[in-house]
Design brief:
The chain has about 100 residues and is mainly alpha-helical. About 70% of the residues lie in helices and about 0% in strands. It contains 4 helices and no strands. It is globular, with a radius of gyration of 17 Å.
């Protein structure tokens, strides 16, 4: 029987485990009201993704792609909970842009 790690590779499997772990972590923090602003959640996820990929030695461009894919996957998986929990969103306005 083939495992997921054997099928997709050890590195990719490690990244998948990280994505699921961070998603669950953020969901718990939202439910406990430790994270309640969308910007706060975004910064937290970006920080965790950056920290995770610090130890990997690979070409900078490939690393950037992995970081973006991990971040986008986590945020996609969190979309339903952001809507369900009515997460606050800061709306930026351009004051004086019409002047």
């Amino acid at each position: 029987m083939m495992t997921i790690a054997a099928y997709c590779g050890d590195f990719e499997f490690t990244v998948l485990e990280f994505v699921f772990t961070i998603t669950k972590d953020v969901e718990k923090k939202i439910k406990k009201r430790k994270l309640f602003y969308e910007e706060q959640i975004t910064r937290y996820v970006k920080k965790k993704v950056d920290q995770f990929f610090l130890g990997f030695k690979m070409h900078e461009h490939i690393l950037t792609v992995y970081k973006n894919e991990a971040y986008n996957t986590i945020m996609f998986r969190l979309q339903h909970i952001l809507k369900e929990k009515n997460i606050f969103r800061v709306i930026e306005t351009a004051i004086g842009s019409d002047l």
